[in-house]
């Protein structure tokens, strides 16, 4: 049946008021317009919905069934409108946030503080790598993304909110730990534990080496910063990671940051969303919170 909401609404009004004239007045339509909507619905159903009783009309058996469903559809529509209205308020709502895996080192702190300020907003966090984030922006399936470099091939709004220095890491017993001002070309003698090709950290690292004409030797490939740090600690090679991932290892002196000329690579974290996406009040609150508070909440990076 190809029934429209408009037909159901007109029919429901006529049935409730038992009158075409009063229905037309309530709906601000002409009487012929009301009759036409009801006739079209009757054509779709294939049976008459009203019968005449002298000057009055009353529902047929099938009319009563359709009346029951049209009321329940009307109630659902009203409920939907109420939910949408409440979602427009900043005190309620739901936010889908996606972050680069490296952002996860400070994202939970950020979300916890946001949740304290806006306990009514439901948060969903997806932690993934850069490639997948770009895809989510392309498909417009996420409210906000926190990532390194904003993608160039997708039409997005982006705002930098915090520095993201990338550093070389080595085990404490590596000779680099005692040297100063190490030229970048010396990295060509080292093996590097690599992130997966979709990683933003990896792309920045490869760009830097290409710019300096340095060809590094690839060692093992790992999709997690934690695994990379363990591998470097175990002597499987050096690597390049965001300084945000290193809080614990530097405190416990399990890793060192060699003094390589040109490092740290100066990068920034960005808040990104699809251009033209209408930000809900909850999304706007999140944006302001990140721009204003992220730096303080992520903690200082004293070693850079
Ligand atoms: P990654 O992202 O975790 O994919 O390396 C970090 C970034 O985009 O810089």
Q: How would you characterize the overall build of this protein?
A:
The protein is of the alpha/beta class. Helices cover 42% and strands 19% of the residues. The protein contains ten helices and eleven strands. The protein has helices spanning 5-17, 20-27, 31-45, 61-88, 107-117, 130-139, 200-211, 225-233, 247-251, 281-298, and strands at 50-53, 56-59, 94-100, 122-128, 144-147, 156-163, 166-169, 191-194, 217-221, 239-242, 268-274. The strands form four sheets. It has a five-stranded mixed beta sheet, with helices on both faces. A two-stranded antiparallel sheet has the order 1-2. Helix 1 (5-17) packs across helix 2 (20-27). The protein is elongated, with a radius of gyration of 31 Å. The model has no long low-confidence stretch (mean pLDDT 91). The chain binds 2-phosphoglycolic acid (PGA). 2-phosphoglycolic acid (PGA) is lined by residues 100-102, 129-130, 147-148, 195, 199-201.
- Ions, cofactors, ligands: which are bound? 2-phosphoglycolic acid
**pLDDT below 50 for ≥5 consecutive residues: which ranges?**
none
Strand count, sense and closure of the main sheet?
5 strands, mixed
Approximate shape = elongated
As an assembly, this protein is single chain
Kindly, what is the distance between the CA atoms of the first and last residues, rounded to a whole number of angstroms?
67 Å
Cα-based radius of gyration, to the nearest Å = 31 Å
Helix content: 40-55%
The chain-level structural class is alpha/beta
Order of helices and strands: HHHEEHEHEHEEEEHEHEHEH
Strand order within the widest beta sheet: 4-3-5-11-6
Mean of residue pLDDT values: 91
């Amino acid at each position: 049946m190809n029934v429209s909401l408009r037909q159901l609404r007109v029919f429901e009004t006529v049935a409730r008021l038992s009158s075409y004239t009063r229905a037309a007045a309530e709906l601000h339509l002409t009487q012929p317009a009301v009759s036409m909507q009801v006739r079209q619905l009757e054509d779709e159903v294939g049976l008459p919905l009203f019968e005449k009783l002298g000057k009055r009309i009353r529902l047929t058996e099938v009319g009563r069934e359709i009346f029951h469903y049209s009321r329940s559809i009307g109630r659902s529509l009203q409920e939907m409108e109420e939910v949408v209205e409440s979602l427009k308020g900043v005190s309620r709502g739901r936010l889908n946030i996606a972050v680069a895996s490296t952002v996860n080192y400070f994202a939970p702190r950020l979300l916890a503080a946001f949740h304290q300020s806006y306990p009514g907003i439901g948060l969903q966090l997806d932690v993934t790598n850069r490639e997948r984030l770009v895809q989510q922006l392309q498909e417009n399936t996420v409210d906000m993304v926190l990532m390194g470099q904003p993608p160039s091939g997708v039409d997005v709004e982006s705002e930098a909110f915090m520095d993201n220095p990338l550093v070389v890491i080595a085990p404490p017993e590596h000779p680099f730990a005692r040297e100063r001002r190490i030229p970048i070309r010396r990295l060509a003698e080292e093996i590097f534990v690599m992130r997966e090709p979709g990683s933003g950290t990896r792309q920045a690292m490869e760009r830097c080496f290409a710019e300096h004409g340095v060809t590094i030797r690839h060692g093992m490939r790992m999709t997690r910063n934690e695994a990379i740090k363990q591998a470097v600690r175990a002597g499987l090679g050096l690597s390049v990671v965001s300084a945000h991932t290193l809080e614990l290892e530097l405190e416990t002196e399990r890793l060192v940051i060699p003094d390589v000329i040109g490092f740290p690579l100066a990068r920034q974290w960005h808040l990104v969303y699809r251009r033209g996406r209408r930000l809900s009040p909850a999304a706007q609150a999140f944006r302001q919170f990140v721009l204003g508070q992220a730096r303080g909440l992520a903690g200082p990076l004293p070693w850079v």
